[in-house]
Amino acid sequence: MGVIWQKVWFDLWHNKMRTLLAVISIAVGVFAVGAIFGMNDQMLTAMDTSHRSDRPQHLTMYFNMPVDRDIVLALRKVPGVEDIESSNAVNIRYRFPGQENWHQGVMMMRDDYRNQKYQLLRLKAGAWPKGDGIAMEFMQADYYHVNLGDQVIFEIGKKEHALPVTGTIRHPFTPPPSLGYDLTFFFTDAAGMERFGLPQGKFTGMMARVTPYSLEHAKQVASDIKDRLATKDIGVASTQYQNPDKHWGRVFMDSFVLVLEVMAVVSLVLSTVLVLNTFMALITQQTNQIGMLKAVGGTSRTVIQIYLSGALVYGALALLISFPLGALTAFSVSQGFLALFNIPYEQFQISDKAIVFQLIAALVVPLLAALWPVLQGASISVREAMASYGLGGDFGMGRFDRLVERVGRHLLPSHYAAALANTFRRKGRLILTELVLVVAGAMFLMLMALNSSINATVDAELARRDYAVTVEFERIQRIDRAVPIAYELEEVEKAEMLFAHSVSILQQGQRTKEAGIASQLIGAPPEDPMYVPRIVAGRWIRPGDERVIVVNKEVADDNGLSIGDVVSLDLAELGRSDWEIIGLHKAIGTGEYSVNNVYAPRQAVLAATNRTGRGVAVLVKTRQHDDATIRAVADKLQALYAQRNMKVIAITTRPGDRTQMQMQFVIVVYMLLAMAILAALVGGIGQMGALSIGVIERTKEIGILRAVGARSGTIMRMFMLEGVLQGALSWLFALPISLVFAPLLGGNLGRIMFGANLEYQYDTQSAVLWLVVVLVIGALASIGPARSATKISVRQSLAYE
Q1: Helix 712-753 vs helix 764-790: angle between axes, to the nearest 10 degrees?
Q2: Which of 139, 386, 517, 607 is most enclosed, with most CB atoms within 10 A?
Q3: Has residue 7 got a pLDDT over 60?
Q4: Per-residue buried b or exposed e for 518-544, using 16+ beta carbons within 10 Å of the residue's own CB
Q5: Residues 278-317 pLDDT 10s
Q6: d(CA 76, CA 87)
Q7: Residues 39, 329 contacting (CB under 8 angstroms)
Q8: Buried (b) or exposed (e) across 451-474, using 16+ Cβ within 10 A?
Q9: What's 137-197 look like in SS3?
Q10: Is the pLDDT of residue 789 over 70?
Q11: Which residues, 6 or more positions from 317, have their beta carbon under 8 angstroms from its beta carbon?
Q12: What is the DSSP-derived secondary structure letter of residue 509?
């Protein structure tokens, strides 16, 4: 073994604490890079691979009424259509044996389960549905603990029918029940669908592919199909589009993945800062050794080789720790996320991209971080090295240093004044240590502000709703029948009915672009409305208004519509008429899979559609506003309408809406919060390392303090105060940074996830919490160095070189 490696191994072995801290500092950053880039690579690749294997359709249409098979198949003749597969889906109510409450579900059907064309359903267990036997979506069956042979009770007409579960099926477009989506999917055959009121040969929807594929072409073909159906007075309730190569979940994941990757790079940079800090301190401590090495014939190149070899060893040791942990974490988190999208992911894999990034992060980045202090140390001459106290050992020479000494001398006891001065002795090291803590603190405070803004946004949206329960009927109902039934409950304070129908907006005879899956015309009473969306331009409807509408701002922007424009509303079988735009609204939750609401005066809508005195949904305001009362009222309303043979297809409540809105963000917030905690861990490690090096550097000073009578408790408190001061100082910088950047983070994520800016709200309690956290981190990080300082005797300090 050469002299260089002997020196390297000597430093590594005889300074175990410094070696451990340096290795852990690098390992944290390398782990973050491996885990996050590995997770993102595996997750997005698996999503797209699974999506393509499911043979996705380019567009899905749901009709306003059951349509004959011949009419559906005839749509293959529309120019641009490659092929079509008909499908069925009807809303049902079900419950499990032993339960009293009914739940909402969907009964689905394919013409031929063994010869499917698009969006392939895969049999996971048992048999395909046939006759009385039904199948259940396998993820939901597992969640509700339903086994093959178990029975499910369905409400058919006014009777209850128990049907056995004979199979479980994977549906590729099923949201996870664990995230609050309680709409359960069941499957049956044509005979079984007839039992639920849909005659054989009738279909409620279709899936199609177009050729050649592009989103614009798919939308154009869909518009042509709607025109063809309109000639037969058949309306389209909604249309969904899919990219055949990109999983539909990318809408939610792409920006989230980008944020995570930025956080991974930040963690690596913080780890690099700690490496830089470590080598600055090491060169400072060993300046005399560098001088002696040069005095006996060593060159600058020799010095560089010694210390960069040490950095390489630190990185290799960190890689041994972080590589398996990063690979395991990437696979486990990917598996969990993919399960949310109903994608099985069982075979352990390691991302090639993550391997490359980890090798660079562990073996190249530490060398680059150590290069500057090593070059500085290698450039010191023998005379400078022997005469120097180390790099930056000039405290007390500047005005700031003298100010710190005066403040300490007049306001603090002598030992604590020394702690204040020691905090600023190595300003370069202090800045690097503080940088890590400041970034961690700013991340934490911004994420807490984001979480607070999410809650404020949800609260603001729900505050616009003067109702707690929405009841949607399968068919149009009489207002003078549906509303009085709601008032039969003493818990109900107010009820009103809305009319809603799918609509296409025509501009100069051409269908406009839809921003979501469909547009829906809602006839709302202008007198004392129970819901008014956020108006961003123009005004809301007023009593006395006739054919005026308020449209979604996104739709208006996409089609060049503005206030005062007159457009045609095509209601398919209910006719077509002209309306004037008087306002633009913006609601949270808009996007590719949302429904765009077009609001108009109810009486004008009913008159235009010849549906006077009718509606499809009842809004209910309860006297008590607690969650338990609202859910109880929802259950009672469902039972009341069922008794009157008024089929309810969906009941939503304010608590349920709140949960679903918040769940859009909760995963993002928790993942980013984990990154902030990781950064705080890096900061604590860096602070411990800096304080440990400070103890080594001040060994002789500690001996002098011992010689003049300083007790162990005094020395320990002096070093702990230094750690606490560093924590408090980082908080003072993190607070204003978070105040500046938190609105930007909330705005960007709000537009990504909600399709709207968040209602910004800073979380002042979290600011106080973070102050406590950094003070605790400072105290804990200083315990080890402080204890080692108390063990230094006068004799050891005098012998220290």
Answers
A1: 150
A2: 139
A3: yes
A4: bbbbbbbbbeebbbbbeeeebebbeee
A5: 787 778 777 777 777 777 777 888 888 888 888 899 999 9
A6: 15
A7: yes
A8: bbbbbbbbeebeeebebbbbbbbe
A9: EHHHHHHCCCCCCCEEEEEECCEEEEEEEEEEEECCCCCCHHHCCCCEEEEECHHHHHHCC
A10: no
A11: 19, 23, 27
A12: T
Tokens of 794: 């006068």
Cα dist from 335 to 47, 328, 341, 342, 529, whole Å: 11, 11, 10, 10, 46
DSSP letter for 619, please: E
Complete DSSP assignment for 71-97: HHHHGGGSTTEEEEEEEEEEEEEEE-T
Q: Which residues contact 57 (CB under 8 A, 6 or more apart)?
A: 85, 118, 119, 207, 208, 209, 242
| Contact residues for 401 (Cβ-Cβ < 8 A; gap 6+) | 395, 421, 424
| DSSP bridge partners of 125 | 168
> How many alpha carbons fall within 13 Å on the CB side of residue 46?
28
Give residue for tokens 């419950």: 95
Determine the Cα–Cα distance for residues 541 and 538; give it in Å rounded to an integer.
10
Q: Which amino acid type is present at position 728?
A: A
Between the alpha carbon of residue 490 and those of residues 184, 368, 400, 653, the distances in Å are 31, 73, 73, 18
Candidates 528, 536, 369; CA nearest to 25 is 369
| Mean confidence (pLDDT) of the chain | 82
How do beta strands 492-507 and 566-570 pair? antiparallel
User: CA-to-CA distance for 303 and 310, rounded, in angstroms?
Assistant: 11
pLDDT top residue among 284 and 160: 160
How far apart CA 589 and CA 21 sit, in angstroms, is 46
pLDDT tens by residue, 667-688: 666 766 776 777 677 777 767 7
Cα–Cα distance for residue pair 437/451, rounded to 1 Å: 21
The first and second tokens of residue 14, run together, are 């005889």
Task: Give the predicted TM-score (pTM) of the model.
Answer: 0.72
377, two tokens: 């140390």
Minimal CA–CA distance to 40: which of 217, 263, 322, 229?
263
Q: Please name the amino acid found at residue 612.
A: T
Residue type present at position 621: K
Task: Fill in the DSSP letter of residue 389.
Answer: S
Say how far apart CA 437 and CA 48 lie, in whole Å: 38
Q: What is the pLDDT of residues 564-594, one digit of tens each?
A: 999 998 877 777 889 999 999 987 655 555 6
Alpha carbon separation from 750 to 325, 588, 744, 760 (Å, rounded): 32, 9, 10, 10
User: CB of 200 within 8 A of CB of 191?
Assistant: yes
Considering only CA atoms, give the Rg of the chain. Answer: 34
Contact 35, 329 (CB under 8 A): yes
- Of 438, 485, 458, 335, residue with least CA distance to 732: 438
Report the length, in residues, of the chain: 801
**Going by DSSP bridges, is the β-strand pair 576-586/548-552 parallel, antiparallel, or unpaired?**
parallel
Distances (CA, A) of 763 to 263, 267, 452, 508, 587: 21, 24, 6, 49, 24
Residue 498 belongs to what H/E stretch?
A: strand 492-507
**Tens digits of per-residue pLDDT, 683-710?**
777 677 667 766 666 666 676 666 766 6
* DSSP 8-state symbol, 649: E
Cβ atoms of 34 and 333 closer than 8 Å: no
**Backbone dihedral region for residue 297 (phi beyond 0: left; psi -120 to 50: alpha; all else: beta):** left
Looking up tokens 């607690």 gives 626
Yes or no: say if 412 and 420 are a contact pair by the CB < 8 Å rule.
yes
Residue 416 in tokens: 């604590």
Compute the C-alpha angle 755/760/763, nearest 5°.
Answer: 135
What pLDDT score was predicted for residue 391? 42
Rounded CA-CA distance 87/110 in Å is 5
How is residue 105 written in tokens?
């579900």
- Asked if 308 contacts 370 with a C-beta cutoff of 8 angstroms, the reply is yes
Strands 614-622 and 576-586, sheet pairing: unpaired
